[in-house]
Specification:
Elements (H helix, E strand, L loop, with lengths): L12 H10 E10 L4 E7 L4 E6 L3 E5 L5 E5 L6 E7 L4 E6 L3 E10 L2 E11 L18 E6 L5 E6 L4 E5 L4 E2 L7 H5 L4 H4 L7 E6 L6 E6 L3 E6 L4 E7 L4 E6 L5 E6 L4 E5 L6 E2 L4 E3 L10 E9 L2 E9 L3 H4 L3 E7 L2 E7 L3 E7 L14 E6 L2 E6 L21 E7 L4 H14 L14 E2 L9 E6 L3 E6 L6 E7 L8 H10 L7 E3 L14 E7 L4 E6 L3 E8 L3 E3 L2 E6 L22 E3 L2 E11 L6 E5 L4 E5 L3 E6 L4 E7 L19 H20 L7 H14 L28 E9 L8 E8 L3 E8 L12 E9 L6 E7 L27 E6 L3 E5 L4 E6 L1 H5 L3 E10 L7 E9 L3 E6 L5 E6 L6 H5 L2 E2 L4 E7 L2 E8 L8 E2 L9 H4 L33 H7 L26 E4 L4 H16 L8
Parallel strand pairs: 17-21, 26-35, 40-42
Antiparallel strand pairs: 1-61, 2-3, 3-4, 4-5, 6-7, 7-8, 8-9, 10-11, 11-12, 12-13, 14-15, 15-16, 16-17, 18-19, 19-20, 20-22, 23-24, 24-25, 25-26, 27-28, 28-29, 30-32, 31-62, 32-33, 33-34, 36-37, 37-38, 38-42, 39-41, 43-44, 44-45, 45-46, 47-48, 48-49, 49-50, 50-63, 51-52, 52-53, 53-54, 55-56, ...
Length: about 1050
Amino acid sequence: MMKFRFRRQGTDPHRDRLRHDLFAFSKTVEHGFPNQPSSLAYDPKLRIMAIGTKSGAVKIYGAPGVEFTGLHKETATVTQMHFLPGQGWLLSLLDDNTLHLWEIYQKEGCSHLEETRAVGLPGRPGFDSANCSPSITRVTVILLKSACDVACLGTEGGGVYFLALPGLTLLEEKTLFQDEILQSVPDDYRCGKALGPVESIQEHPQDPSKLLIGYSRGLVIIWDQTTRTVDHLFLGNQQLESLAWEHSGKTIVSSHSDGGYMVWAVNSSCQKTQQPVRSTIPYGPFPCKAINKILWRTCESGNPFIIFNGGMPRASYGDRHCVSVLQGQTLATLDFTSRVIDFFTVQGTEVAEGGFENPRALVVLVEEELVVIDLQTPGWPTIPAPYLAPLHSSAITCSYHISNVPLKLWERIIGAGEQQSPRLSSATWPINGGKNLAQEPTQRGLLLTGHEDGTVRFWDASGVSLKPLYKLGTANIFQTDCEHNDSLNQAGEEEWPPFRKVGCFDPYSDDPRLGIQKIALCKYTAKMVVAGTAGQVLVMELSDEKSEHAVSVATVDLLQDREGFTWKGHDRLAPKNGPVAFAPGFQPSVLVQCVPPAAVTAVTLHSEWNLVAFGTSHGFGLFDYYRRNPVLARCTLHPNDSLAMEGPLSRVKSLKKSLRQSFRRIRKSRVSGKKRVNANSPSSKVQEANAQLAEQAGPPEVEMTPVQRRIEPRSADDSLSGVVRCLYFADTFLRDAAHHGPTMWAGTNSGSVFAYALEVPSQEKFSERAVEAVLGKEIQLMHRAPVVAIAVLDGRGNPLPEPYEVSRDLAKAPDMQGSHSMLISSEEQFKVFTLPKVSAKTKFKLTAHEGCRVRKVALVSFASATSEDYAENCLACLTNLGDIHIFTVPGLRPQVHYGCIRKEDISGIASCVFTKHGQGFYLISPSEFERFSLSTRNVTEPLCSLEVSRLQDTSCLSNNFTATPKLPQANGTHVPRSPEANHSPADSDRSPEEHQAAFSPGPADSPNSSMENPLDTTGDITVEEVKDFLASSEEAERNLRNASEDEARPAGILIK
């Protein structure tokens, strides 16, 4: 009578070894654009670029696949970064006035990034300066000398200090104070005022011993370090922002706070220059904003490039974020949608004396994206980036991953994407340093992201770099304000300044109803379903030719004339009348509009049966897109489910109403606790049996199960109980054990599962006969927990193949001889039922054991790292605590669990998507995906090398310094996994017989065996309510007789 778990006889070493070969957790790489970038650096010799962020992250990029990531121990903004060219060292300055030296070093054939030294500088109120030289103050600007031996630090106090590299020790004898400079300044210029903070330090391009130093007040000097004298004075009167040399060293250019720049001649005959050669305010004459940075680059073809950011007319365009490129009479005002952080040009590393720099490209880092402009092609087009794409160009609303994409589909998607952007430059990516050592991806992976503006973006997720392939727009199908905006943009093309929109970050959506909620794609037929916020379901097909056609519209009423419900949310999107022009790519054929137009919560596609199923908070529907007619509509609303009628964009719900509902629920829970139960009802008998079992004591020699949490059944009238959470197609046994056929399954928020038997005609008769759906079974989970996923397993316990996989010999045919089973994953537990009887086989109560709820699940194939032929199908589950648990199927035996996402990161947990081969993605910021691996074998991580030529003796770095190993990050910047984590010392010593034994689990330890997960040991007995609508009357009587016999039998192990 008592349920208990027998004590196990120790662990199985074979299974432990096998588990080690299958499962290993690591965060491998971050895709997308760094969140909140704050600084930029470039190494022209190694051709690599670094981006620092406000959270203290350092990310270095070279050729595609060459990536390094580091994280400062302090969570502080990286305000400046500078490479020691060719050395593989990077100096970073944080806003807490600390300097940090990073080293790219070689280990086991691969390059790694590590922080090797840090020094604190006083300069902020309250900063502890006990361990530092008191003469150093707040750093404003840094210059690394070309010899890579000294760093020059300009400060707020106007002093310039010098640090020896790479030891970061202060060279006090070289310090330059303002007093020394002021001795050379004329009395009438001094006027008793300080020179202000150091704004810029630049090394003379032809004479490294000379420094160009600019002060905030406007004074610019050339300082000779060898003689410690002022070589030249430029007596500027306008507040200085930045300085730049012309390559020959005969000219300098200064930019100022009034939006102007001045060109000064360096004349060796006289020491003082009072007037510039040229002074101009490019966007004057009205007051302009400051030009924050300016570059001068010589060009063989004629006029030099003058590149600067800022300088916009303050009144009319003061809110614009611009970088201006000026060459002779040609001016382009590059207009970005977010703030400019920094920029640099890419040119040849060695320029001969008297030669030209000839910049190839301009690289601009703005707050939300990186844009590269080709300066050698007329018109200065944009060079497409192979990485650092702004995933959040419009906010991401959903994600979908497809593994093993066929080559033909892959090429067609790439072709459609190339035709979308003909104005892009064909120049090669200029930041191409380092060598990617990672193996070529064995299969093509496609990541699809749905966005708030109604677009779906296709990304190449096969390797380390996430590369954009194609963008699908859905807004042009509907009547929105898009056309009006386009006409406004065209009207402004001839105005002054000559703005040119660059970049793709556009956070503004024309209509929030356009937002994409769900995506489904068949990789074999190139059919796709995209569903949105206003109940729109678009069936699309990939076409290589442009087309102009009308989109068929069908309406499906999910309320089914249910009385007492009035939709109070947003209206549906109005489709355009008449033909619509479509570019090559995915083109819509049918628009299915759900009524009411609530957001679509689930969608699935079966291209072999020409069916698409979709669900909202009101019900679900089935649509035949071949014949273009609805097959089924079912309302899932509970009579009290009023919240479902308000919609996500409604403002109807008031605080008063919310409080009233809360008090009603509290009162109801108190009253229901005191209600007298009917003694003859089945539920009262179950409760009585549970109480008796709980009071009994078990035998002394058995080990009792750990205390489990008590899970209260949810109320049937909870708000939003009718939300459809999952939909699933399967060819399985629903009517009886002898005949299988097409079925559709739907799971809801209230723990209901609906199973429909489908009559699908053969492919030759699609046009003659309509698809029919008959309700087969209705299952109500006892605790009414939301159903997260449904899957059918064949007789061998394997998931059923996708449509067309078997007919095209791409997958093994499912076992139709043995009995099928159905896996239902709810928020609280996993349960396997036999089909067609729907009797419980085994289960695992996650909430009771772990105190967490299921958020995402997926069936994943894990391949062994040591045997090519062995793989297991498992269930991967992400919980609301951010943990990932892996279970065998159909045995539901727990294998491993890992902490992956911080439990506070709700958006990260909600955005997680698993791949079919043991990897996954989740958003760590609006613009970045973290990629992780659960598989020992299937890992995508940066493996690269960078050849550096060190000029300095690095022995000083090893003295008195121990690198602090970083702790694994629960979120954010990942920590590369060590190679040792993948390999057990015992693996290499394993004999072939041991290998065979490890890959041949016994019957009691097989992942397909339900014996390995003993049925639950709690002292309560519950059963699922199953209604069978297909059983004959004789079978129903037989089932009823069997059930009564079971009740009379003594209680054994029962399934909850």
